[in-house]
Amino acid sequence: EGQDVEVLVEGVPLNEPSNAHQHGYADAHFLIPELVGAVRVLPGPFDPAQGDFALAGTAEYTLGAPREGLTVLGGWGSFRRRRLLLLWGDGERSFAGFEVQGGAGFGANRAHRLVRLLARWGGGDERLGWSVLAGSHALRFDSAGVVREDAVRAGELPCEGGESAQRFCTHDPNQGGSAARHLLVGTVRWARPHRRYVQRAWLQLRRSRFRENFTFALIDERGDGLDEQTDVLAFGLRGDFTSDRVWRGRRQQLELGWLARHDRGDARMWRLRRSTGEPHTVVFDSGLALTRAAAHLSGTLRLPRVTLRAGGRIAAFASTVTDRALPDADRMGERLTSQTADAFGVAVLPRTTLALHLIDAEAAHVDWLSSLGLGARSSDAQALSEGEDAPFARARAVESGLRMRIAHPAFAFEGRAGVFWTRVADDLLFDPEAGRNVPIGATNRFGAFASARLRVTDWAEALASWSWTEAHRPGDDAAPLALRDGPALPFVPRMVGRVDAAFRRALPLRRGALLVGAALGAGVIGRRPLPLGEEAAPYGTVDVSARVGWRFVELRFAVRNLLDAQTRPVELHYESRLDPDDPFGSLRAARHFAAGPPRELFLTLALHLDPAWLAPGDEDEGPASDDEPSDP
Q1: Is the pLDDT score of 581 beyond 80?
Q2: How many CA atoms lie within 13 A of 284 on its CB side?
Q3: CATH T-level assignment (fold) for domain 5-614
Q4: Do 598 and 524 meet the contact criterion of CB atoms below 8 Å apart?
């Protein structure tokens, strides 16, 4: 949920340090999918520009309108899902989108409603440009949480309709949550020959609330439900300057970047009564003042057969935490129920990537890339102590492999394959009794990966990826290279595979053109280790979609989980107690799971009102441009 992946939107970090739900939680639900122009993924902590939480990598969203003019879109689907979307774009920097959505959800306690507004206004030219991005989002949802497998098989849950209804039922109807975000981002871009400067500033008001129950009545007979609330005001600056020069016929580059961010607010967690959802115990109640500052420097040296990028990042973490849930007396006598702790730390993070160009022809390139880097993740404020001088977890990562690129007038191909190793000094793992991730010490991960991407001119594209991972918790006396030492790290799938393909064609008609397209996505998640030597079963899903458009009208049809597979995206193994009056009946560890969605259908009708299409003399032009994104 963000603790190992840095998530950015237009350069603004979304990860929330010390969120009551999960440290590093990254919520991108305020984004309107049609306004996401691209997602850039960087694996590992190998780029000096990558910041807090980028242990496994970084994902950055860039925004943009898919077309000029006004789009009105309405959608209807399974489980009473409804969607209304209004979009406007000028084809350049400016756009606006407004969406409302709701649905009953599959099974018990899964309804949701949301509203989101996203707009950007920009101007200037290539030498000096500016933009202002504003977003507002509110969401409320119900959650079924996890259910015990033995209770499902015995038909003990309060849902009628057979085993299928039992799988989609709930033990505690008080689960769910809400979220809100109000964001303002200003960006200035300055460019001259061989120089570029970008500066961003943002202000954000954020609230999130999650109500969950994993152990039911194991810890307290009144109920183990959790109410996790976070309210934060965040603001920050992020900039980078890039300079390049041509030396010996090749472009050499130097980059300098900086970041300053401050988050101020509150995080609290309460225990809830199982029957009514009322709070009965304070788990923690903290006031937060968190400052993150960093700078990075990197240089790229290009030679005939070698490209070297090397640099480093210096990151400072300053945290002030006020605990407001302390007892009013201790062994020394009466005391205040609040206490403040300060912690500070600095991380020096060198990173480098070496590329050997084995084949460097006009139409084909084969490179051998090797990367080495140190990453850092700030510590959860709930675990900090007064005067702590290193409030962060450090990760060492190595990756090496081959990359092939082929360019042809009819198609383009890119393939990658390699191996990796990562060691995190103080990793996080989910604890069902705590309801969130907790520190567990050092972990090792190693494995292999492969991916391929094929694009056929401008009408078809396919992407396939595969990875194999081994993850373990080594003992304190384990050798550094004893990668398989210790028990398997729970919840990390050994194998993950994914295939996506899409095509689109414009078929000429007497009046305009008929746009047709289709997309397919299939994924497989392999076996996942669970605590106490258990394993979660593998599962897979297939999604398909189709579209047809003529002039300004477009119809889309999507099916999720086409084969109606019974999936368990969340599968756990731990102790819980369903009956608080039976103190010994549920003390053995049991399998718990959250069922994935069954087959879902969704139909969308869109009207694209571009003034150019309605102008006189344009009757023979089609409604779509080649810049239109493919189906998801």
Answers
A1: no
A2: 23
A3: Maltoporin; Chain A (2.40.170)
A4: no
